[in-house]
Amino acid sequence: MEPECNKLMMESINKNYVEMDEYPVTTELQNRCVNMIARLFHAPLGHGEAAVGVGTVGSSEAIMLAGLAFKRRWQNKRKAHGLPYDNPNIVTGANIQVCWEKFAKYFEVEIKKVKLREGYYVMDPEKAVKMVDENTIFVAAILGSTLTGEFEDVKLLNDLLVEKNNQTGWETPIHVDAASGGFIAPFLYPELEWDFRLPLVKSINVSGHKYGLVYAGIGWVVWRSKSDLPNELIFHINYLGADQPTFTLNFSKGSSQVIAQYYQLIRLGFEGYRNVMDNCHQNMMILREGLEKTRHFSIISKENGIPLIAFSLKDSSCYKEFEVAKMLRRFGWIVPAYTMPADAEHITVLRVVSREDFSRTLAERLVVDLNKVLHELDTLSPRIYAKM
Ligand SMILES: Cc1ncc(COP(=O)(O)O)c(C=O)c1O
Predict the structure, then answer these.
(1) DSSP 51
(2) Are 9 and 261 in contact (CB under 8 A)?
(3) Rounded Cα–Cα distance for residues 207 and 181 (Å)
């Protein structure tokens, strides 16, 4: 962030966010951020109507809160109809980020995962909808898979689920985990329908500390409307002064990240964010071209997702992605290598994320260093690397 924003963060480092009566402006800034983000995601709000949402520590906390709201709504509905409510599940792709496993474990919800397959590394909406049953509290779609950056087809999921809901009467909703994509799609792909434009999308999370361009420790969750957040989950405290409604997992937290997010949103504006994201995308494309030229890799990521590049060595290679990752460390590059989840475990991927501070020069240098690594691996005996 800019030095002015660093200074602002340092000046507010002593403020506890929860002291809302003492620091009312910070609460106001949070509310403004929620309103801007909800409108960016096309929440159906009237003129001057306040959006429903909250700042969190990151997408993980945001996902816990969204998941809890769904669970409670589903339970309330089941209770009202005299139906069992002790076996809730969610349907997702096997490509979910670990925070979803945490949500399921901590809040006792079963995860039904749609398996991946070679060449298809996101949730298949048709398979997902088939897995939905009366105990499904929501389907979680990911806008920007952590593993490949690919956007899941939320529109198709919505349409198939509308059909199923019409047949069954279950009203199964959708949550979109837009941890990275929430600050990419509105700027680079404004026509893509993935957000509250789709009627079954009831809540969305986004990380402020990814493409929201703030330092670590900020995320957001926004709901479509007030009725999607059960009132009984909101706590009212008054011992710090006035009545303060809160819906977060933690009580205290720093204010700096909220203030920094507000700074970034108004300093950069829509145009500024679009320029940054466009730049990230262009640098990713430079890298993509450089990787293709090596003829050693199959590119797995799509051009129109998160600006990242995920790639595997071609089958003919006599060394592994883990060796490439290990050798790149000698040049100062930390490029993770990992295996895909079920049923694509046999595929190993290397991944480079193009962030705001990843310049064209750095992209070109990475290609040069990668070529050096490939040359060494190609010319030296494969047996040496087998021991690594
Ligand atoms: C798709 C997705 N969801 C959730 C998370 C968790 O986000 P956070 O680190 O903001 O808690 C991540 C982090 O990488 C992610 O990629």
Answers:
(1) P
(2) no
(3) 9
| CA 219 to ligand 1 center in whole angstroms | 9
CATH code of the domain occupying 272-386 = 3.90.1150.160
Ligand 1 pocket residue status of 207, Cβ below 6 Å: yes
Instruction: Kindly list the averaged pLDDT for each block of 10 residues, start to end, along the chain of length 388.
Output: 96 92 91 97 95 97 98 97 97 98 98 96 98 98 97 98 98 98 98 98 98 98 96 82 81 96 98 98 97 97 97 93 97 96 94 96 97 94 52
* Most informative mutation of 56, 97, 106, 306 for ligand 1 (most atoms within 8 A of CB): 97
| Residue 111 and residue 175 in contact, taking contact as beta carbons nearer than 8 Å | no
At residue 227, the 3 state secondary structure works out as helix
Domain ranges of the chain: 3-269, 272-386
| Any ligand 1 atom below 6 A from CB of 142 | yes
Which class would CATH give 3-269? alpha beta
Candidate of 56, 57, 59 to mutate for ligand 1, largest count of ligand atoms within 8 Å of Cβ: 59
Which atom of ligand 1 approaches the CA of 143 most closely? 1
